[in-house]
Structure formats: C-alpha cells, structure tokens
C-alpha cells in the first residue's frame, strides 16, 4: 500500500490528467474532498474536482505523506500539500486522508472512498 500511495501522489505532484487516476477509483467512488461539487457523484465528481485543481495550480505540486496506517481495506495518513497557484500565490495545507478500497485480483487497490480533511477540521 505504501508504494501505491507514493505513486498516487507522484501523479498528483505532476498534475497528470484525471484519466491517470480513474483506473484506481471505483466508478461510484465516494469522493469527499474540499471544494468537491456536492451535486455530482462518483467519477463525475472526481473529474470536476480535478478540473478545478488543474485550473488553479502550477506544476509541480508537492505532497509529503507521513504516518501511513494501512490494514485490511483501509488506509489513513497525513499529507502536507504545497503548491503555487497560477496567480503566483503559495498554498500550504495539512490534510488527513482516509481511504477505503477493494483488493483487485492483481492486488492493486480500487479506491471506493476517498476522504480528505484539513487537519484543523479532522481534529475538531
């Protein structure tokens, strides 16, 4: 799971197209992210959220993952995110991520629930 998470955030750091992520997300994934459109569901919500990211940040971004705990069909960890907006503003956020997934026959996780909360929210 550690290598899967590292690869996932490597793709985010490069701001790869949304298609680079969809194969690892269940079609009806519960995508619980800041600024996600509540009127959309599953991969449609992911696509809209990723479009907003691409329209906001410069490449590359930085994700530093710590404190990974994974077992069974769950993984939880902290992420420090740093990026420069297209307008030149530096953004830094400390996030708690919680994933649920199914194991595929090839052993690669298929994410069914993806939640990210700012640590201030996660601790309240």
SSE blueprint and pairings:
Elements: H1 2-13, H2 19-22, E1 25-32, H3 42-54, E2 62-71, E3 74-84, E4 90-103, E5 109-118, H4 119-122
Parallel strand pairs: 1-5
Antiparallel strand pairs: 2-3, 3-4, 4-5
Query: CATH architecture, please?
Result: Roll
What is the radius of gyration computed over CA atoms, rounded to a whole number of angstroms?
Answer: 14 Å
pLDDT averaged residue by residue: 94
Helix content: 25-40%
- Strands of the widest sheet, in order across it, are 1-5-4-3-2
CATH class: Alpha Beta
Number of strands: 5
Report the β-strand fraction as a percent range.
35-45%
Low-pLDDT runs of 5+ residues are none
Description of the molecule:
The protein has helices at 2-13, 19-22, 42-54, 119-122; strands at 25-32, 62-71, 74-84, 90-103, 109-118. Strand 2 (62-71) and strand 3 form a beta hairpin. The two termini are 28 Å apart. The chain has a single domain (2-122), classed as Roll (Nuclear Transport Factor 2, Chain: A), CATH 3.10.450. The chain is an alpha+beta fold and 124 residues long. Helices cover 27% and strands 43% of the residues.
